Amino acid sequence: MTTVAEGAKLVRVHPEKVLEFPLVLYSSVTCPLMLENITSSTVAFKIKTTAPRGYLVRPSSGIISPSQTREVQIILQPLQSVEQASQSHRFLIQTTLCDNSVEQLPKDFWQEVNKEQIFEHRLSVIFKQETPADTNPGSIDLSKGSLHPGSQSASSSIITSQGVHSGDIELKNKYDELVQYCLALEKQSNELKGEAAILREKLEKAERNVVNNSTQGAQGIEFWHVVAMVFVAIVALKLINY
């Protein structure tokens, strides 16, 4: 097995130092991470983050065949506010050599690896605000808590002056209005369903009454038919006897 000093050349990471995400609210964003195995042996890797609830890493661990490249998807979960972008997020990539015959890492693989044989590569995260072409783009460096060239500081006042904070408030207000509208529609739908159920019940009751009345009417007609036939028979007998 290799040592940490030698392990520094196990993989080539791109991007090498920083993962950049656009500063977008209420939407997930994906940043591809490329791991290139620059050795003649199979390399095992594992990726960790200081904000496990804020990101999905697919895959978070695996193997890379000799001279091959593995793409990892770093998926940022939707931000609910600009303030969430001010937190310091970092990623840690751990790599080590493994047997070339290994096709899938066993669950206890990393517990059995000697720490001296693991190389660690760290990445920071920044959020870049999307700005028009005629303005200086700025970005929030989460590892240092400062903005990159094109801005003056990492304070929320700078973000507000660039229009992000006001846009955040406006977007949130529209979102709240949409939620209230959907709730109102749901309430109206429930009321209409209740009225429809009442009307259906009244209609079924009316249909039952019509059927009952029709049955009673039919029975009355049959009775008068019998009476008429008896009367005709009596008259006929009297005529015959006469």
Automatic annotation (TrEMBL):
Keyword match Isomerase: no
Coiled coil regions, renumbered to chain: 182-216
Domain spans labelled MSP: 10-128
Compartmental location: Membrane
InterPro entries assigned to the protein according to its UniProt record, in alphabetical order: Ig-like_fold, MSP_dom, PapD-like_sf, VAP
GO biological process terms on file: endoplasmic reticulum membrane organization; endoplasmic reticulum-plasma membrane tethering
The entry's keywords: Coiled coil, Membrane, Transmembrane, Transmembrane helix
Pfam families linked to this entry: Motile_Sperm
Highest taxon in the source lineage: Eukaryota
Membrane topology: Single-pass type IV membrane protein
Cellular component GO terms held in the UniProt record: endoplasmic reticulum membrane; plasma membrane
Family of the protein in this entry: Belongs to the VAMP-associated protein (VAP) (TC 9.B.17) family.
Protein name: MSP domain-containing protein
Organism: Cryptosporidium andersoni
